[in-house]
Design a protein that fits this description.
By secondary structure, the chain is mainly α. The protein has 15 helices and no strands. About 16% of the residues have low confidence.
């Protein structure tokens, strides 16, 4: 009985403690909201504050005219702090941004305009603030391009600049500054050699703003980034495919753009590179006496629009025993003797054509840098 009473007392105490803690927590929450809501003046109070703030604003503007800019900014800050819900506070906040902008203090100016955008969305000067933010960010980006080789550290970090452009997009996603900011983000990544992020950012611009004047340029750069990798020595076939697809999109979707002609020329180059890789792969298999596999890659190389590659692949196929050209053949014997002389003649013909691939060379046994697996024999 004693144990039961003790247990019951313990439960009751626990319930009381829980209730007390919960009540205290609720009281704290309600007090928090009361404090927060108490900052918003009533209509009557706001009506009283408006003329006071307006008079202070006139004083600040007069101080500006007199050239007493520091004093004027101090007055503007006083209005922002003590009369935040008045119409004068919005103008004062905007003036602070303009003041720092005139001094070239980019970070302070951008942050001041961001405060304006956050707190005064209904203001008539909202889009002007966005325009100023873009102007500041673009100026800093241009400065970074010029100071690329400078050892003097930038006043604005790259990460901060990226946040600025993202803020502009968030603040006004349907304004003319959003696609411009998206392009700037992509270009920044490209300049920093962050190719994956650059491609993703350019693609985002194309997807969200397909009709914008910069979309054709963004689409071209997607392909050009992959093409530059190939020109620098990359033999990854995925890069070639990606670059070709991007250039084809430029030609189809933006046929009247300035980049369409360049995309067509790039596409020819990429087709030649792809054809050469296919031919080299076929040549490698031929040297390994895997004639069935060689035929498969020569057949693919023949589809190249480059006549030189097409001719070289055709000659090679003709000089392999015809039975290996049949997709149903399972014979892996050597080419017939009567085709050997033809092979030599074709090799000489290829040399005369000035092809990039030396088809007669036996000095190296290495195949393409990235060798595809041999086709599965039936």
């Amino acid at each position: 009985m004693f144990k039961y009473s003790r247990f019951t007392l313990s439960i009751n105490l626990s319930i009381l403690l829980i209730y007390f803690n919960t009540s205290t927590a609720q009281a704290d929450i309600f007090d928090y909201f009361k404090k927060d809501l108490s900052k918003v003046p009533t209509k009557e109070k706001l009506k009283e504050l408006e003329p006071i703030a307006s008079q202070k604003l006139k004083t600040a503007l007069q101080q500006e005219k007199q050239g007493r800019h520091k004093k004027a900014i101090s007055t503007h800050r006083n209005i922002i702090k003590n009369y935040p819900f008045t119409t004068s506070a919005a103008e004062s906040q905007f003036k602070v941004g303009e003041y720092y902008m005139s001094l070239g203090k980019d970070k302070k100016a951008f942050d001041a305009f961001q405060d304006f955008v956050d707190k005064h969305k209904a203001s008539d000067s909202y889009m002007e603030a966005i325009a100023n933010q873009y102007q500041i960010a673009e100026k800093v980006l241009s400065g970074k391009k010029k100071k690329k080789l400078s050892i003097i550290p930038d006043k604005v970090r790259d990460s901060d600049l990226l946040k600025w452009f993202l803020s502009i997009i968030d603040n006004a996603p349907f304004s003319k500054y959003a696609p411009l900011s998206q392009f700037a983000i992509a270009e920044s990544y490209q300049n920093e050699k962050k190719t994956s992020l650059a491609i993703a950012s350019y693609q985002k611009l194309v997807d969200k703003y397909p009709n914008h004047k910069l979309s054709s340029e963004a689409q071209y750069r997607i392909g050009d980034i992959a093409r530059k990798k190939i020109n620098s020595g990359s033999r990854d076939s995925a890069n070639i495919t990606h670059a070709k697809n991007a250039m084809e999109d430029v030609i189809v979707a933006y046929e009247n753009s300035p980049r369409a002609k360049e995309a067509a020329n790039a596409l020819k180059q990429l087709d030649s590179i792809q054809g050469t890789q296919l031919f080299e792969t076929g040549l490698f298999y031929e040297k390994q006496k895997q004639y069935r596999s060689a035929i498969i890659y020569y057949e693919k190389a023949i589809k190249s629009k480059n006549p030189s590659i097409k001719d070289m692949a055709t000659l090679r196929m003709k000089n392999i025993n015809p039975q290996f050209a049949s997709t149903n053949s399972t014979d892996h014997s050597k080419p017939k003797k009567n085709n050997i002389s033809k092979t030599i003649e074709s090799d000489n013909a290829i040399k005369k054509k000035g092809g990039k691939v030396d088809t007669m060379s036996t000095e190296t046994k290495e195949g393409p840098l990235i060798l595809p697996p041999p086709p599965i024999e039936p």
